[in-house]
Amino acid sequence: MRRSERNPAIEIVRIALGLVWLPFAWAAAAPAAAVRRYRASVARPGQAAERARFDTKKWTAELLKHLEWRRFEELCAAYYEALGFRAQLTRSRADGGVDIGLSAQDSDGTATIVHCKAWDAYRVGVSPLEALRRAMTASKVRRGVLITAGRFTREAVTFAAQENIQLIDGAGLLGKLAELAPEKSLALLQFTTQGDFLTPTCPHCSIKMISRKSTQAGRKFWGCVNYPRCKHTATV
Q1: How far apart (Å, rounded) are the C-alpha atoms in residues 79 and 84?
Q2: How far apart are CA 10 and CA 160, in angstroms?
Q3: Phi-psi bin for 46: left (phi > 0), alpha (psi -120 to 50), beta?
Q4: Read out DSSP for 120-132?
Q5: Residue 167's beta-bridge partner residues?
Q6: Which among 227, 138, 184 is positioned nearest to 21, based on CA atoms?
Q7: 145 by DSSP, 3-state: which?
Q8: Annotated domain spans of the chain
Q9: Please, which residues have CB within 8 angstroms of residue 72's CB and are 6 or more apart in sequence?
Q10: Beta strands in the chain (DSSP E)
Q11: What's the Cα-to-Cα distance from 120 to each of 152, 168, 234, rounded to whole Å?
Q12: Per DSSP, which regions of 118-207 are E strands?
């Protein structure tokens, strides 16, 4: 079943974009429930050295590449909110990701569906684009966008051109963030780098995962804190 939601993180950013002239006013003005959920993503103990690797005062390719997948999704949705769109999130994908439905502020109909792929070592191929195309067909939407912090394969570029899908890679996203008004770009940057933006979120439980080590090979991996009820893992 498809589940639509208004992401509290986006609500916070929307307020931030309207109040950027008042330092920290967005945190005070945001709905209490949204702030509680947002602040729950605090940096985990011992993460200071990890965070210090990144210059959180400006957008960089390195920062985008290391954003955990859920925060990357929230950034992409908030970016379109900054452009003046309404971003409706529908959490229906098998990988835990969302369909981000974009519409004009004065319209209830979805005009574009956006999917996001956080960076990994491999270029994004055709498979995620096929999933986006299916979502477009199911929603009767003619335009799609796929955003990644990495890059796309040649086959993906060819497929996207045939299916009316816009591709935005890491360099392209950096360029679009730079084109925003400085205060909007800063508001998005401050939101994106608040709390724990590095530890992956369990797609099934929507909570931060923890570092574990296999008993046999000693291999490190991310595991859900709800194990054994949830056995989802991710590579480090």
Answers
A1: 9
A2: 27
A3: left
A4: -SS-B-HHHHHHH
A5: 146
A6: 184
A7: strand
A8: 3-199, 202-236
A9: 64, 116, 118, 149
A10: 3-5, 86-91, 99-103, 112-117, 143-148, 165-168, 210-213, 220-223, 233-235
A11: 11, 15, 12
A12: 143-148, 165-168
- Note the pLDDT tens digit of each residue in 42-93: 555 556 557 768 888 999 999 999 999 989 999 999 999 999 998 888 776 6
Q: Amino acid identity of 4?
A: S
DSSP letter, residue 146: E
In angstroms, rounded to a whole number, what is the distance separating the alpha carbons of residues 107 and 170? Answer: 30
Token couple for 89: 């999130």
First to last CA, the chain: 31
Quote the longest CA-to-CA distance of the chain: 57
Q: Give the fold, CATH level 3, of 3-199.
A: Trna Endonuclease; Chain: A, domain 1 (3.40.1350)
108-121 confidence digits (pLDDT tens): 788 999 999 988 77
In angstroms, the CA 223 to CA 236 distance is 10
Q: Give the number of other Cβ atoms within 10 Å of residue 114's Cβ.
A: 26
pTM for this model (two decimals): 0.80
Spatial distance between the Cα atoms of 81 and 15, rounded to a whole number of angstroms:
11
Antiparallel, parallel or unpaired: β 86-91 and 165-168: unpaired
Q: What distance in Å separates the CA atoms of residue 3 and residue 101, rounded to the nearest whole number? A: 12
